[in-house]
Model the fold of this input.
Amino acid sequence: MNKVRYVYGLSSALLVGGAAVSLITGTPLGAQVAQNDEALMDRVVPIAGAPASFADLTAQLQPAVVNISTRQRIEVSNNPFAGTPFAELFNRRGGGQPQTREAQSLGSGFIISADGFVVTNNHVVSPDSRAKLESIAVTLPDGTEYEAELIGADAASDLAVLKIKASKTFPFVTFGDSSAARVGDWVVAIGNPFGLGGTVTSGIVSAVYRNTGQGGAYDRYIQTDASINRGNSGGPLFDMRGNVIGINNAIFSPSGGSVGIGFAIPAEIAAPIVEQLRAGREIERGYLGVRLQPIDEDFAASLGLPKRRGELVQTVEETSPAGRAGIKAGDIITKVNGKDVSADQTVSFLVANLQPGAQVPVELLRDGKRVAVNVTLGKRPSEAELQQQAQTFDPEAEEPMAPGTSDGTIEEKLGLQVLGMTPQIARSLGVPVDIKGVVIGTVDPNSDAARKGLRRGDIILSANYQPVESVEDLLAQVNVATSEGREALLLRIQRRTQPPAFFPIRLR
Done:
């Protein structure tokens, strides 16, 4: 059996309403054109059967669909011994200095206002942590290219809003009501697959509210067999009346190419997020603070529950909203705010679409009995913070120095790579979850820290008698010591099962 993988890098977009879409071409802001003309729409899309052609519909919509390209500057190492014991020796002899190279990304997007606001995927315009975004270019179907600025981006929903830097009137489209989409409805996707330029494909809605099993608050898509490929990211999925009902986002594929299973973010999910990004507002979401497991067939059989209903609480953060409300590991969450929890309507989705501070009733099954609790939702952390929380930390693992994984000054001066403390790391080290400090992740074997016996899993509590509660605190003390000409830094170290002790670590 061939291994099937998800290929992301396709398309995501946004929504702003629930009315019929309008496409404006060279007319004053707010003017409407032919695709809202009932006579034209009846000719383009007959009431019965498939349309004779998608050509008239495409001609009305395609001017508002754009290609998006970015230029990024990525720092890379030219050390051939990176990750080996010889890496530090190579660096000390003048080699291995970081170099930069230029990178590009390509995707799709669509204009949502006459003054040039554009919707696309976050991953199209947001480089990874190694890269710096230098410029964004938007190219219209007629080949005209404009510089654009990033107005707002949201990693959780994979949406971003750009603004074209030009004083002119642009053709645009608007969002429709994706909740009205039915399995079997015709749809049209327009985008920039493989950088080829404007490409139109058609298909039908294969499923609504498809859960792909990838987790997260927005694992809830329109599935379509319209051909979607790399570069379609951020492009629109239209219904037969020209409404944007989805934003192409991903495909399911064993080969990396389209096999007729594509996913689009529903407009009803994207629209409110796009409006907030366009207005420059921070996206705030509710947060419970639990790790969940869907109730699959085996779980259901072992607990005597219906299949695909509810989610099992695996762990609860002690100081989280769920922990304060009395939710426990082993509980099964069946309802949130009066809505049933299912594969199509997960706890993450329900909670993320509520505001922090909201009082929410949550129904549970505990030891076979129904329990009701009220939870005051917290604010959902950023995706980077959630990833950090999800990371496990094995203090016994032997990991080589990896360039760029923590602050470079600390690595250079102390020979240490350090991590901010999290409840997960604290639990793995067997220390209180509210302990303050930073954790040593890796020690350069050629450093004074290694000679003094410091090792992975040690917790730095203070530096030169100043509390260290973050990587920034440690960096500040390293900089103070360097500016004062000191040759060493006094660290107070907490090691598992041992009392704290002071270590003078020579600076390099």
Observations:
- The domain at 286-379 is CATH 2.30.42.10 (Pdz3 Domain).
- DSSP finds 13 helices and 27 strands in the chain.
